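Example 49, ligand zinc ion.
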Amino acid sequence: MKCSICNKKIEKTFLNKIKGAYIIKNSKRHAVCSECQKKYKDNISQKIE
Ligand SMILES: [Zn+2]
């Protein structure tokens, strides 16, 4: 799983959750890493776990 903003690999926690968030954009699901989630949190309005 890669971050759709910076293209870095997103790590997973031991619970198999990604270290980041999923966003819905143009009705597609994208994953973003935790760094980009922080950086762009104002632009990431639609977030799902
Ligand atoms: Zn990123």
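Summary: Residues 1-49 form one domain.
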